[in-house]
């Protein structure tokens, strides 16, 4: 009888061990969160699939912005700021192929004016300071704080991320500045003096003729830009091979937001674009939170400048995507996600 009870005890312990091992199947460097827990639906998810429309107060009234949560990790929550301005969260759908298996909770988010959010027509809303306040309202609504909040911003989203950190970094656990320099004049200089001379002279001449005539909507102009500039410095793939989420994002881009802030040119920031003179190079030293800057060899942005940013902030790291361009989450995926995930986990575990 005593032997029987011993066997039962051993069997119970063995089964308990198996259950614990199964729950820890998605073990990560900083600890473990079970697959069941990570994918555990919240009550509203069972009806809305993680989507939350967040009310945003602005000087021109209240509007709603679209967000969608994926995963459940109390110490890692990444809010994704898309580029454009006026682009959409869709260009980050490839994150689904990397973040879930690493137990990283993340939020898709369409900024005000972008396709899945409200799109008011008042151009005065497309203002950098207002967008910073919008991000802060989104943070509060999602319950993000210094113990879990990672802010990822790419391109225009990188501008927004830097400005947010300069005002609200006490709420951040980590900051990622992806494919964005800290100065629009420096970006324009790099475009004019480094990237432009790399183009075929006859192609550059024709593009600049359209630029001088401000004929930005000419189909020939767009054809030249896409096939000679985008495929070299925005996404290094033939146009026919561009990922469907990217094509969908371009289709959904809001030109009112884009032109107001970025300007009508696809070859830099020109005209009376509101971001034309933006520059925070002298303020970067104020950023104290762990910061990752991501650059790419073939980017529209100078990778050396992005490396420099990592040395100007107080706790920086630089990731270079050697085969990537402006959208290196697509054209240099393995390097991009390996470095991004490592940074998030290093910060979370205290190893940064």
From TrEMBL:
<dbReference type="InterPro" id="IPR002410">
    <property type="entry name" value="Peptidase_S33"/>
</dbReference>
<dbReference type="InterPro" id="IPR029058">
    <property type="entry name" value="AB_hydrolase_fold"/>
</dbReference>
<protein>
    <submittedName>
        <fullName>Proline iminopeptidase-family hydrolase</fullName>
    </submittedName>
</protein>
<comment type="similarity">
    <text>Belongs to the peptidase S33 family.</text>
</comment>
<feature type="domain" description="AB hydrolase-1">
    <location>
        <begin position="78"/>
        <end position="332"/>
    </location>
</feature>
<dbReference type="InterPro" id="IPR050266">
    <property type="entry name" value="AB_hydrolase_sf"/>
</dbReference>
<dbReference type="Pfam" id="PF00561">
    <property type="entry name" value="Abhydrolase_1"/>
</dbReference>
<keyword id="KW-0378">Hydrolase</keyword>
<dbReference type="GO" id="GO:0016787">
    <property type="term" value="F:hydrolase activity"/>
</dbReference>
<dbReference type="InterPro" id="IPR005945">
    <property type="entry name" value="Pro_imino_pep"/>
</dbReference>
<dbReference type="InterPro" id="IPR000073">
    <property type="entry name" value="AB_hydrolase_1"/>
</dbReference>
């Amino acid at each position: 009888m005593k032997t029987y009870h011993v066997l039962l005890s051993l069997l119970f312990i063995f089964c308990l061990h198996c259950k614990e091992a199964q729950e820890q199947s998605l073990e990560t460097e900083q600890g473990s969160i079970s697959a069941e827990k990570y994918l555990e639906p919240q009550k509203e998810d069972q009806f809305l699939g993680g989507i939350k429309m967040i009310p945003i107060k602005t000087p021109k009234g209240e509007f709603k912005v679209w967000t969608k949560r994926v995963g459940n990790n109390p110490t890692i929550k990444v809010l994704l700021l898309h580029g454009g301005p006026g682009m959409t969260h869709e260009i980050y759908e490839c994150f689904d192929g990397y973040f879930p298996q690493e137990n990283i909770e993340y939020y898709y988010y369409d900024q005000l004016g972008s396709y899945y959010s409200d799109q008011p027509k008042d151009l005065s809303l497309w203002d950098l300071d207002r967008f910073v306040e919008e991000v802060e309202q989104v943070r509060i609504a999602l319950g993000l704080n210094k113990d879990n909040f990672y802010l990822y911003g790419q391109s225009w989203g990188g501008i927004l991320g830097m400005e947010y950190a300069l005002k609200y970094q006490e709420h951040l656990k980590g900051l990622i500045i992806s494919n964005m320099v800290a100065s629009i004049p420096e970006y324009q200089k790099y475009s004019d003096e480094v990237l432009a001379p790399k183009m075929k002279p006859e192609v550059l001449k024709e593009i600049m003729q359209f630029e001088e005539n401000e004929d930005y909507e000419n189909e020939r102009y767009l054809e030249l830009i896409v096939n000679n500039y985008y495929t070299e410095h925005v996404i290094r793939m033939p146009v026919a091979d561009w990922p469907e989420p990217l094509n969908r994002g371009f289709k959904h881009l809001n030109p009112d937001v884009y032109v107001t802030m970025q300007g009508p040119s696809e070859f830099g920031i020109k005209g009376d674009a509101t971001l034309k003179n933006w520059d925070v190079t002298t303020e970067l030293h104020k950023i104290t939170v762990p910061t990752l800057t991501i650059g790419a060899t073939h980017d529209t942005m100078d990778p050396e400048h992005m490396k420099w940013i990592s040395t100007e902030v107080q706790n920086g790291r630089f990731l270079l995507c050697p085969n990537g361009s402006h959208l290196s989450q697509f054209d240099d995926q393995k390097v991009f996600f390996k470095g991004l995930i490592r940074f998030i986990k290093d910060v979370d575990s205290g190893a940064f």
